Amino acid sequence: MRFVNPIPFVRDINQSKEFYEKRLGLKILEDFGKFVLFETGFAIHDGTSLEQTIWRQEFIANEPYERRNLLLYFEHEDVEVAFENIAPHVDLIHPIERQAWGQRVFRFYDPDGHAIEVGEPQSLGPLGNSHKA
């Protein structure tokens, strides 16, 4: 077994697709209408259709799916450039800050209230694997 990817539920697939494509610069690999897969392996799915698929019912709600229990982590080679391009268009949690483990990151919310972290790449260990501590 191997982990493939997280698939956050989104309220407005077109708004979220535009957000991840235009604001975060992710490239769309496949667009199936209610499900969008990006080249990085990250994917989003229309929440109401996924609710029907999984639980056989729709939960009538207009609020975002936010839960404060999920952090979507991305890396960018130049965290300052990423911040300048993204920050004016999002609900910022905090600007670039150095974390206890030395990495500089900033955090914000996507259109559905999912928390997103963008950090500078960091190499850990002899293999140089990029990894969030």
From TrEMBL:
Ranges of residues in domain VOC: 2-121
A Pfam family reported for this protein in Swiss-Prot or TrEMBL: Glyoxalase_2
Stated name of the protein: Glyoxalase/bleomycin resistance protein/dioxygenase
Organism of derivation: Sinorhizobium fredii (strain HH103)
Higher taxonomy: Bacteria, Pseudomonadati, Pseudomonadota, Alphaproteobacteria, Hyphomicrobiales
